[in-house]
């Protein structure tokens, strides 16, 4: 079942920059999806279109088959169902304490105070943030801020969580923590959509990859399918995933020795 879809989407910024051109995508419910493309290829703009922050000049965005309603009630409902985590946590975290920041979304949905307290405490426990709840978010580390930002989105219990470059600026331990959280949320049934220019991450993590270049969708499919077309990866100014380069190097060496690929090493 398709949870999010776009049909022939077009968007230009007020200064005339074309950011999304004729993009049609379908995101199946429950998948882990990566949008891959170099900086400026249109990933962030597409995400803002997917959660209604931007309105397309042409084309449609559909959630569970229904076209987005851009009235304020329609947008509130959309943002409850499609949460977005910005690349820079400081753009997202606005309240004076961690607790208040996580409470912001549920409060906007007019939940009762006790209900909000229950949700926030659940998030603080889940994300290991209880001991930080009264701290100003700008005193936290990058990884902690990212967890607060994701907790704030998850507090509204969306079906889809979209994260723009979720691992950028995190150290390897912080990045692994966030990946573990995303995988666990996916196991709990959430559809997880990320953007990244990290081809290795997209290759190892995703069920499905969409490749964007110059505001357009170039390809989509399993990571193996999309990244095995090396010319289109190069033409999109991306590198091959390291694992593929490694594999091709090995293959070259076997062939150079006149040997065949050893039986115990499968075809990619
Ligand atoms: P990505 O997320 O892949 O880096 P973006 O969606 O941010 O790509 O950018 C797509 C294009 O839109 C780029 O040419 C970028 O310069 C342009 N762009 C992004 N934001 C704005 C803006 N607020 N005003 C004008 N142009 C913008």
UniProtKB/TrEMBL annotation:
It is a peripheral membrane protein. It is found in: Cell membrane. The keyword Translocase applies. One of its GO terms (cellular component) is ATP-binding cassette (ABC) transporter complex. Residues 4-239 form the ABC transporter domain. The keyword Glycoprotein does not apply. One of its GO terms (molecular function) is ATPase-coupled transmembrane transporter activity. Keywords: ATP-binding, Cell membrane, Membrane, Nucleotide-binding, Translocase, Transport. It comes from the Archaea. GO terms for biological process: cobalt ion transport. Its main location: membrane. Belongs to the ABC transporter superfamily. Part of an ABC transporter complex. Responsible for energy coupling to the transport system. Probably part of an ABC transporter complex. Responsible for energy coupling to the transport system. This is ABC transporter ATP-binding protein. It comes from Methanolapillus ohkumae. The chain holds residues 1 to 268 of 475 of the full protein.
